[in-house]
Design brief:
Layout (H helix, E strand, L loop, with lengths): L2 H34 L19 H6 L4 H27 L4 H13 L3 H11 L2 H17 L6 H24 L2 H30 L7 H57 L2
Amino acid sequence: MSKNGSSLKEALQSTFAAGTILISLVIAYLIYTYVLGNPVNFEGGNPKGHPIAGNYLAMVYKGGMIVPLLITIILVLLTFTLERAFTLRKAQGKGSVNKFVSALQVYLNNNQLDEAITSCDKQKGSIGNVMKAGLKKYKELQSDSRLDKDQKLVSLQKEFEEATALELPMLSRNLVILSTIASISVLIGLIGTVLGMIRAFAALAQAGAPDALALATGISEALINTAFGITGSTLAIIFYNYFSTRIDSMTYKIDEAGFSLTQTFASQNK
């Protein structure tokens, strides 16, 4: 990939990430205002009053203006979870990776490089892309009489490293967003919790009988924001670890296949 092409792709990815966050924020505000805050969810049709008994939409609305931020976080989390799942599924390629690596080894043992390259084209995954680059270099080095064996091995390994370096950013892209959500979701929820407790204690601090509505609203705000924050953080941690494990597994397979190829080259080229 050219430098200009890589820069364009990075710019598009940054635009996608920023656009996703902004769109999620708008959607979250609309959900909060027109779905959760719909007057039909409240007694007397007044969103400032008590929720209708058992109406969870109204209860969530009572979480206050921190709720739209937490809804935004969850929408962003779901969007990038789906994006990573789709990308990693595509990067895995077609068929079993283990069978693909085993088939390549058979082709290499029989010196069937063209068939091995064709197999990489059919695999259409990250490991296929890396192996194809390595196989082309392998084929080129076989007919190169200017380099000795050690120089050829170094050249082949360098080709693998460069091909792998091009694939890894695509595999791990946007994972930083999931890790960030895992950290800030709880913190934003705690902000809502603190604001809710401030409101609750303010209701208790009034002279005479406490304002029951303000007290209930403050406690609801605290608990709802806590629940949202913990939920977002928990899901983000689960998805981040899941995708990280998949990426590590794919990277290991790429390294294993590359090592196998270099060892085969070393054994067949004395």
